[in-house]
Design brief:
Layout lengths: L1 H11 L12 H29 L25 H15 L5 H25 L9 H21 L9 E3 L3 E2 H4 L7 E2 L2 E3 L8 E3 L7 E3 L8 H30 L5 H20 L2 H7 L10 H19 L8 H18 L6 H4 L1 H24 L11 H4 L18 H21 L5
Antiparallel strand pairs: 1-4, 2-3, 5-6
Length: about 425
Protein backbone atom coordinates (compact mmCIF):
# COMPACT_ATOMS: atom_id res chain seq x y z
CA UNK A 1 0.00 0.00 0.00
CA UNK A 2 2.83 2.40 0.85
CA UNK A 3 4.51 1.48 -2.44
CA UNK A 4 1.38 2.32 -4.42
CA UNK A 5 0.86 5.49 -2.38
CA UNK A 6 4.34 6.73 -3.34
CA UNK A 7 3.54 5.92 -6.97
CA UNK A 8 0.39 8.03 -6.70
CA UNK A 9 2.37 10.90 -5.19
CA UNK A 10 4.81 10.71 -8.11
CA UNK A 11 1.95 10.98 -10.60
CA UNK A 12 0.37 14.04 -8.97
CA UNK A 13 3.70 15.79 -8.41
CA UNK A 14 4.08 15.41 -4.61
CA UNK A 15 7.71 14.88 -3.58
CA UNK A 16 8.14 13.87 0.06
CA UNK A 17 11.58 13.29 1.64
CA UNK A 18 12.66 9.68 1.07
CA UNK A 19 9.73 8.97 -1.22
CA UNK A 20 11.96 7.91 -4.09
CA UNK A 21 13.55 5.16 -2.01
CA UNK A 22 10.46 3.00 -2.47
CA UNK A 23 11.30 2.74 -6.16
CA UNK A 24 14.32 0.64 -5.21
CA UNK A 25 13.76 -3.07 -4.77
CA UNK A 26 16.66 -3.41 -2.34
CA UNK A 27 15.25 -0.71 -0.04
CA UNK A 28 11.79 -2.28 0.02
CA UNK A 29 13.30 -5.69 0.74
CA UNK A 30 15.19 -4.28 3.73
CA UNK A 31 12.07 -2.51 5.01
CA UNK A 32 9.97 -5.68 4.60
CA UNK A 33 12.57 -7.71 6.50
CA UNK A 34 12.72 -5.17 9.35
CA UNK A 35 8.95 -4.83 9.67
CA UNK A 36 8.45 -8.60 9.66
CA UNK A 37 11.13 -9.05 12.31
CA UNK A 38 9.62 -6.40 14.58
CA UNK A 39 6.07 -7.70 14.17
CA UNK A 40 7.17 -11.26 14.87
CA UNK A 41 9.12 -10.32 18.01
CA UNK A 42 6.75 -7.81 19.60
CA UNK A 43 3.37 -9.10 18.43
CA UNK A 44 4.55 -12.67 18.95
CA UNK A 45 4.79 -12.17 22.71
CA UNK A 46 1.16 -11.03 22.86
CA UNK A 47 -0.03 -13.89 20.67
CA UNK A 48 1.81 -16.45 22.81
CA UNK A 49 0.21 -15.00 25.95
CA UNK A 50 -3.22 -15.21 24.34
CA UNK A 51 -2.61 -18.82 23.27
CA UNK A 52 -1.62 -19.66 26.85
CA UNK A 53 -4.79 -18.05 28.23
CA UNK A 54 -6.89 -20.03 25.76
CA UNK A 55 -5.01 -23.19 26.80
CA UNK A 56 -4.09 -23.94 23.21
CA UNK A 57 -1.26 -26.29 24.12
CA UNK A 58 0.56 -29.09 22.38
CA UNK A 59 -0.56 -32.65 23.08
CA UNK A 60 2.51 -34.87 23.38
CA UNK A 61 2.62 -38.60 22.68
CA UNK A 62 5.21 -40.41 24.78
CA UNK A 63 7.77 -41.67 22.23
CA UNK A 64 10.56 -42.15 24.71
CA UNK A 65 12.50 -39.08 23.58
CA UNK A 66 14.66 -37.11 25.99
CA UNK A 67 12.87 -34.02 27.34
CA UNK A 68 9.79 -34.80 25.30
CA UNK A 69 7.19 -34.64 28.06
CA UNK A 70 8.52 -31.29 29.27
CA UNK A 71 7.02 -29.78 26.12
CA UNK A 72 3.50 -30.80 27.07
CA UNK A 73 1.22 -27.78 27.21
CA UNK A 74 3.53 -25.52 25.18
CA UNK A 75 1.34 -23.20 23.06
CA UNK A 76 0.89 -24.38 19.49
CA UNK A 77 -0.59 -22.78 16.34
CA UNK A 78 2.28 -20.25 16.50
CA UNK A 79 2.24 -20.23 12.71
CA UNK A 80 -0.23 -17.36 13.14
CA UNK A 81 2.76 -15.22 14.20
CA UNK A 82 4.65 -16.08 11.00
CA UNK A 83 1.56 -15.53 8.86
CA UNK A 84 0.85 -12.04 10.19
CA UNK A 85 4.53 -11.08 10.14
CA UNK A 86 4.74 -11.95 6.44
CA UNK A 87 1.40 -10.72 5.17
CA UNK A 88 1.42 -7.25 6.78
CA UNK A 89 4.83 -6.08 5.42
CA UNK A 90 4.08 -7.52 1.98
CA UNK A 91 0.73 -5.70 1.80
CA UNK A 92 2.45 -2.46 2.86
CA UNK A 93 5.69 -2.60 0.88
CA UNK A 94 5.32 -4.90 -2.16
CA UNK A 95 3.86 -4.16 -5.58
CA UNK A 96 0.44 -5.78 -5.22
CA UNK A 97 -0.21 -5.64 -8.97
CA UNK A 98 2.72 -7.98 -9.58
CA UNK A 99 1.49 -11.43 -10.66
CA UNK A 100 4.15 -13.22 -8.60
CA UNK A 101 3.19 -11.37 -5.43
CA UNK A 102 -0.48 -12.07 -6.05
CA UNK A 103 0.12 -15.80 -6.46
CA UNK A 104 2.32 -15.92 -3.37
CA UNK A 105 -0.29 -14.09 -1.28
CA UNK A 106 -3.10 -16.38 -2.42
CA UNK A 107 -1.07 -19.55 -1.85
CA UNK A 108 0.14 -18.33 1.56
CA UNK A 109 -3.42 -17.72 2.73
CA UNK A 110 -4.55 -21.07 1.33
CA UNK A 111 -1.83 -23.17 2.97
CA UNK A 112 -2.27 -21.21 6.19
CA UNK A 113 -5.98 -22.07 6.25
CA UNK A 114 -5.27 -25.75 5.56
CA UNK A 115 -2.78 -25.90 8.42
CA UNK A 116 -5.02 -23.84 10.70
CA UNK A 117 -7.95 -26.19 10.07
CA UNK A 118 -5.75 -29.18 10.85
CA UNK A 119 -4.58 -27.66 14.15
CA UNK A 120 -8.10 -26.48 15.01
CA UNK A 121 -9.43 -30.03 14.75
CA UNK A 122 -6.57 -31.34 16.89
CA UNK A 123 -6.81 -28.68 19.61
CA UNK A 124 -10.48 -27.74 19.83
CA UNK A 125 -12.16 -30.91 18.54
CA UNK A 126 -9.74 -33.08 20.57
CA UNK A 127 -9.04 -35.20 17.51
CA UNK A 128 -5.32 -36.00 17.48
CA UNK A 129 -5.44 -37.04 13.82
CA UNK A 130 -6.63 -33.64 12.58
CA UNK A 131 -7.37 -33.50 8.89
CA UNK A 132 -7.01 -36.82 7.15
CA UNK A 133 -3.92 -37.35 5.00
CA UNK A 134 -6.10 -37.53 1.89
CA UNK A 135 -7.83 -34.23 2.73
CA UNK A 136 -4.52 -32.43 3.31
CA UNK A 137 -2.99 -33.85 0.14
CA UNK A 138 -6.08 -32.91 -1.85
CA UNK A 139 -6.00 -29.32 -0.53
CA UNK A 140 -2.27 -28.99 -1.20
CA UNK A 141 -2.57 -30.48 -4.68
CA UNK A 142 -5.52 -28.20 -5.51
CA UNK A 143 -3.52 -25.04 -4.82
CA UNK A 144 -0.47 -26.48 -6.57
CA UNK A 145 -2.63 -27.20 -9.61
CA UNK A 146 -3.96 -23.63 -9.54
CA UNK A 147 -0.38 -22.29 -9.48
CA UNK A 148 0.55 -24.61 -12.34
CA UNK A 149 -2.38 -23.43 -14.47
CA UNK A 150 -1.49 -19.80 -13.73
CA UNK A 151 2.07 -20.41 -14.88
CA UNK A 152 0.69 -22.11 -17.97
CA UNK A 153 -1.93 -19.57 -19.06
CA UNK A 154 -1.00 -16.19 -17.54
CA UNK A 155 0.45 -13.76 -20.07
CA UNK A 156 2.35 -12.04 -17.26
CA UNK A 157 4.45 -15.09 -16.39
CA UNK A 158 7.06 -15.17 -19.12
CA UNK A 159 10.80 -15.44 -19.61
CA UNK A 160 13.17 -13.50 -21.82
CA UNK A 161 15.94 -15.54 -23.32
CA UNK A 162 19.39 -14.72 -24.61
CA UNK A 163 19.64 -11.34 -22.91
CA UNK A 164 22.38 -9.15 -24.33
CA UNK A 165 23.61 -6.16 -22.33
CA UNK A 166 25.44 -3.33 -24.07
CA UNK A 167 28.50 -1.80 -22.48
CA UNK A 168 28.19 1.56 -20.74
CA UNK A 169 29.45 4.27 -23.07
CA UNK A 170 30.94 7.48 -21.69
CA UNK A 171 31.76 10.67 -23.54
CA UNK A 172 35.46 10.14 -22.97
CA UNK A 173 35.37 6.63 -24.35
CA UNK A 174 33.43 7.57 -27.45
CA UNK A 175 35.46 10.66 -28.20
CA UNK A 176 32.34 12.76 -28.68
CA UNK A 177 30.87 15.58 -26.73
CA UNK A 178 27.53 14.87 -25.06
CA UNK A 179 25.43 16.40 -22.33
CA UNK A 180 25.21 13.08 -20.48
CA UNK A 181 28.18 11.81 -18.54
CA UNK A 182 27.39 8.26 -19.56
CA UNK A 183 24.72 6.23 -21.27
CA UNK A 184 23.73 2.60 -21.04
CA UNK A 185 21.39 0.56 -23.18
CA UNK A 186 19.95 -2.89 -22.77
CA UNK A 187 18.84 -4.96 -25.73
CA UNK A 188 17.26 -8.38 -25.92
CA UNK A 189 17.80 -10.74 -28.81
CA UNK A 190 14.39 -12.32 -28.26
CA UNK A 191 11.00 -11.13 -27.10
CA UNK A 192 9.29 -12.43 -23.98
CA UNK A 193 7.90 -15.93 -24.44
CA UNK A 194 5.86 -18.54 -22.65
CA UNK A 195 8.28 -21.27 -21.82
CA UNK A 196 8.51 -24.60 -20.02
CA UNK A 197 12.21 -24.08 -19.38
CA UNK A 198 13.65 -24.16 -15.89
CA UNK A 199 17.05 -23.88 -14.23
CA UNK A 200 19.29 -26.90 -13.80
CA UNK A 201 22.93 -27.02 -12.62
CA UNK A 202 26.04 -28.50 -14.24
CA UNK A 203 25.08 -27.67 -17.84
CA UNK A 204 26.34 -24.85 -20.03
CA UNK A 205 23.17 -22.77 -20.24
CA UNK A 206 21.67 -23.85 -16.89
CA UNK A 207 18.45 -24.72 -18.70
CA UNK A 208 16.20 -27.75 -18.94
CA UNK A 209 13.06 -27.77 -21.07
CA UNK A 210 10.20 -30.05 -20.07
CA UNK A 211 9.31 -30.43 -23.75
CA UNK A 212 12.30 -32.77 -24.00
CA UNK A 213 10.27 -35.26 -21.96
CA UNK A 214 7.33 -35.14 -24.35
CA UNK A 215 7.04 -38.12 -26.72
CA UNK A 216 4.98 -36.03 -29.14
CA UNK A 217 5.63 -33.14 -31.50
CA UNK A 218 3.46 -30.47 -32.99
CA UNK A 219 0.16 -29.58 -31.30
CA UNK A 220 0.12 -32.73 -29.18
CA UNK A 221 3.68 -31.97 -28.11
CA UNK A 222 2.63 -28.50 -26.94
CA UNK A 223 -0.16 -29.90 -24.75
CA UNK A 224 2.05 -32.70 -23.47
CA UNK A 225 4.96 -30.47 -22.40
CA UNK A 226 2.66 -28.18 -20.44
CA UNK A 227 0.92 -31.17 -18.85
CA UNK A 228 4.30 -32.51 -17.72
CA UNK A 229 5.30 -29.08 -16.42
CA UNK A 230 2.07 -28.63 -14.46
CA UNK A 231 2.40 -32.14 -13.02
CA UNK A 232 5.94 -31.35 -11.87
CA UNK A 233 4.68 -28.13 -10.24
CA UNK A 234 2.02 -30.08 -8.33
CA UNK A 235 4.60 -32.63 -7.15
CA UNK A 236 7.14 -29.98 -6.07
CA UNK A 237 4.69 -27.79 -4.13
CA UNK A 238 2.97 -30.73 -2.43
CA UNK A 239 6.30 -32.35 -1.54
CA UNK A 240 7.72 -29.11 -0.11
CA UNK A 241 4.65 -28.48 2.03
CA UNK A 242 4.78 -31.98 3.51
CA UNK A 243 8.58 -31.93 3.81
CA UNK A 244 8.58 -28.91 6.12
CA UNK A 245 5.68 -30.43 8.06
CA UNK A 246 7.68 -33.61 8.70
CA UNK A 247 10.75 -31.59 9.71
CA UNK A 248 8.81 -29.64 12.32
CA UNK A 249 9.58 -31.93 15.24
CA UNK A 250 12.32 -30.12 17.14
CA UNK A 251 12.55 -26.63 18.58
CA UNK A 252 13.72 -24.24 15.89
CA UNK A 253 14.50 -26.89 13.27
CA UNK A 254 11.83 -26.11 10.67
CA UNK A 255 11.91 -22.35 11.23
CA UNK A 256 15.70 -22.03 11.06
CA UNK A 257 16.07 -24.28 8.03
CA UNK A 258 13.24 -22.48 6.22
CA UNK A 259 14.93 -19.13 6.89
CA UNK A 260 18.13 -20.39 5.24
CA UNK A 261 16.17 -21.60 2.22
CA UNK A 262 14.26 -18.30 2.11
CA UNK A 263 17.50 -16.30 1.89
CA UNK A 264 18.67 -18.30 -1.13
CA UNK A 265 15.33 -18.11 -2.92
CA UNK A 266 15.26 -14.36 -2.32
CA UNK A 267 18.74 -14.04 -3.86
CA UNK A 268 17.67 -16.12 -6.87
CA UNK A 269 14.55 -13.98 -7.33
CA UNK A 270 16.59 -10.78 -7.23
CA UNK A 271 19.17 -12.14 -9.68
CA UNK A 272 16.64 -13.57 -12.12
CA UNK A 273 14.55 -10.40 -12.06
CA UNK A 274 17.52 -8.15 -12.87
CA UNK A 275 18.57 -7.97 -16.51
CA UNK A 276 22.24 -7.25 -15.77
CA UNK A 277 22.66 -10.04 -13.23
CA UNK A 278 20.76 -12.52 -15.38
CA UNK A 279 23.10 -11.84 -18.28
CA UNK A 280 26.23 -12.11 -16.11
CA UNK A 281 25.19 -15.45 -14.62
CA UNK A 282 23.78 -16.67 -17.92
CA UNK A 283 20.42 -17.52 -16.38
CA UNK A 284 16.88 -16.82 -17.46
CA UNK A 285 15.71 -13.26 -17.10
CA UNK A 286 12.19 -13.40 -15.66
CA UNK A 287 10.55 -9.96 -15.87
CA UNK A 288 8.84 -8.97 -12.64
CA UNK A 289 10.19 -11.85 -10.58
CA UNK A 290 12.51 -9.55 -8.65
CA UNK A 291 9.52 -8.47 -6.57
CA UNK A 292 9.55 -11.94 -5.02
CA UNK A 293 12.68 -10.83 -3.14
CA UNK A 294 10.49 -8.47 -1.10
CA UNK A 295 8.21 -11.34 -0.13
CA UNK A 296 11.10 -13.62 0.79
CA UNK A 297 12.73 -10.85 2.84
CA UNK A 298 9.53 -10.56 4.85
CA UNK A 299 9.47 -14.34 5.29
CA UNK A 300 13.06 -14.49 6.54
CA UNK A 301 12.44 -11.60 8.94
CA UNK A 302 9.32 -13.30 10.27
CA UNK A 303 11.15 -16.59 10.80
CA UNK A 304 14.09 -14.99 12.60
CA UNK A 305 11.67 -13.18 14.88
CA UNK A 306 9.75 -16.41 15.45
CA UNK A 307 12.99 -18.18 16.40
CA UNK A 308 13.24 -15.74 19.32
CA UNK A 309 10.49 -17.81 20.94
CA UNK A 310 10.89 -21.12 19.11
CA UNK A 311 14.52 -22.00 19.87
CA UNK A 312 15.20 -24.59 22.57
CA UNK A 313 13.42 -24.65 24.96
CA UNK A 314 10.54 -23.44 22.81
CA UNK A 315 7.91 -21.08 24.18
CA UNK A 316 5.67 -21.73 21.19
CA UNK A 317 5.32 -24.27 18.38
CA UNK A 318 4.32 -23.29 14.86
CA UNK A 319 2.08 -26.34 14.41
CA UNK A 320 0.71 -27.36 11.03
CA UNK A 321 -0.53 -23.77 10.79
CA UNK A 322 3.03 -22.70 10.18
CA UNK A 323 4.76 -25.77 8.72
CA UNK A 324 2.30 -26.43 5.88
CA UNK A 325 2.33 -22.73 5.03
CA UNK A 326 6.14 -22.49 5.02
CA UNK A 327 6.50 -25.53 2.78
CA UNK A 328 3.86 -24.17 0.43
CA UNK A 329 5.61 -20.79 0.18
CA UNK A 330 8.97 -22.42 -0.53
CA UNK A 331 7.51 -24.68 -3.20
CA UNK A 332 5.51 -21.94 -4.92
CA UNK A 333 8.47 -19.54 -4.88
CA UNK A 334 10.82 -22.14 -6.36
CA UNK A 335 8.33 -22.82 -9.15
CA UNK A 336 7.69 -19.15 -9.95
CA UNK A 337 11.40 -18.30 -10.25
CA UNK A 338 12.12 -21.53 -12.18
CA UNK A 339 14.36 -23.15 -9.55
CA UNK A 340 12.22 -26.16 -8.65
CA UNK A 341 14.83 -28.69 -9.83
CA UNK A 342 17.30 -27.25 -7.31
CA UNK A 343 14.94 -28.09 -4.44
CA UNK A 344 16.46 -31.55 -3.65
CA UNK A 345 19.79 -29.80 -2.98
CA UNK A 346 18.67 -26.48 -1.51
CA UNK A 347 16.04 -28.17 0.66
CA UNK A 348 18.23 -31.19 1.31
CA UNK A 349 17.26 -31.30 4.99
CA UNK A 350 13.53 -31.38 4.15
CA UNK A 351 14.22 -33.90 1.38
CA UNK A 352 16.15 -36.23 3.71
CA UNK A 353 13.44 -36.01 6.37
CA UNK A 354 10.74 -36.94 3.85
CA UNK A 355 12.77 -39.78 2.33
CA UNK A 356 13.52 -41.21 5.79
CA UNK A 357 9.80 -41.44 6.55
CA UNK A 358 9.05 -43.14 3.22
CA UNK A 359 11.94 -45.59 3.60
CA UNK A 360 10.96 -46.45 7.16
CA UNK A 361 7.31 -46.97 6.30
CA UNK A 362 7.85 -49.13 3.21
CA UNK A 363 10.64 -51.21 4.77
CA UNK A 364 8.57 -51.85 7.88
CA UNK A 365 5.59 -53.02 5.81
CA UNK A 366 7.80 -55.14 3.56
CA UNK A 367 9.57 -56.93 6.43
CA UNK A 368 6.32 -57.45 8.33
CA UNK A 369 4.82 -59.14 5.29
CA UNK A 370 7.93 -61.23 4.60
CA UNK A 371 9.08 -62.13 8.10
CA UNK A 372 5.92 -61.56 10.13
CA UNK A 373 7.72 -58.83 12.10
CA UNK A 374 8.29 -55.22 11.06
CA UNK A 375 11.90 -54.06 11.01
CA UNK A 376 13.34 -50.55 10.94
CA UNK A 377 15.99 -48.80 8.89
CA UNK A 378 16.18 -45.90 11.32
CA UNK A 379 15.68 -46.01 15.07
CA UNK A 380 12.82 -43.59 14.49
CA UNK A 381 11.51 -41.45 11.64
CA UNK A 382 11.61 -38.62 10.63
CA UNK A 383 15.40 -38.55 10.52
CA UNK A 384 15.95 -35.99 13.31
CA UNK A 385 14.32 -38.33 15.84
CA UNK A 386 16.76 -41.09 14.85
CA UNK A 387 19.54 -39.20 16.59
CA UNK A 388 17.46 -38.85 19.76
CA UNK A 389 16.90 -42.58 20.26
CA UNK A 390 19.16 -45.23 21.68
CA UNK A 391 18.79 -48.93 22.28
CA UNK A 392 16.30 -49.43 19.42
CA UNK A 393 17.04 -52.27 16.93
CA UNK A 394 17.58 -50.84 13.44
CA UNK A 395 19.76 -51.25 10.37
CA UNK A 396 21.50 -47.90 11.04
CA UNK A 397 22.88 -48.07 14.57
CA UNK A 398 24.95 -44.86 14.62
CA UNK A 399 24.98 -42.85 16.81
CA UNK A 400 25.31 -45.23 19.74
CA UNK A 401 24.16 -42.64 22.28
CA UNK A 402 21.34 -40.12 21.99
CA UNK A 403 22.33 -36.59 20.94
CA UNK A 404 20.80 -33.55 22.72
CA UNK A 405 18.04 -31.84 20.77
CA UNK A 406 19.74 -28.43 20.61
CA UNK A 407 22.88 -29.98 19.10
CA UNK A 408 20.89 -31.87 16.47
CA UNK A 409 19.07 -28.69 15.43
CA UNK A 410 22.31 -26.69 15.21
CA UNK A 411 23.97 -29.36 13.10
CA UNK A 412 21.01 -29.52 10.75
CA UNK A 413 21.20 -25.73 10.39
CA UNK A 414 24.88 -26.03 9.48
CA UNK A 415 24.07 -28.68 6.89
CA UNK A 416 21.35 -26.39 5.52
CA UNK A 417 23.86 -23.53 5.19
CA UNK A 418 26.32 -25.77 3.36
CA UNK A 419 23.62 -26.90 0.96
CA UNK A 420 22.53 -23.28 0.44
CA UNK A 421 26.08 -22.21 -0.43
CA UNK A 422 26.43 -25.19 -2.76
CA UNK A 423 23.18 -24.33 -4.53
CA UNK A 424 24.30 -20.75 -5.18
CA UNK A 425 27.73 -21.93 -6.36
CA UNK A 426 26.09 -24.23 -8.88
CA UNK A 427 25.10 -21.21 -10.96
CA UNK A 428 28.74 -20.89 -11.98
CA UNK A 429 29.43 -24.61 -12.44
CA UNK A 430 29.19 -25.52 -16.10
Amino acid sequence: MIYHLTEYFDRIGIDLPGQGLFNYLSFRAIVAFTLALLISVFAGRRIITWLQKQQIGETIRDLGLEGQMQKKGTPTMGGVIIFLSVIIPVLLIADLTNIYIMLLLVSTVWFFLVGFTDDYIKVFKKNKEGLSEKAKLAAQAAMALAIGLAVCFSDQIVVRENVAVEETVTAADSGTETDDAQTAAFTERQDVIKSTKTTIPFVKDHEFDYKWLSPFKGAWGWYCKWAIYVLMIVIVITACSNGVNLTDGMDGLAAGTSAIVGVVLGIFAWLGGNIVNADYLNIMYIPGSGEVAVFMSALVGALIGFLWYNTYPAQVFMGDTGSLMLGGIIGVTAVLIRKELLIPILCGVFFAESVSVLMQRFYFKYTKKKYGEGRRIFKMAPLHHHYQKEGIPSLIKSPVKAIPEAKIVTRFWIIGMILAALTIAMLKLR
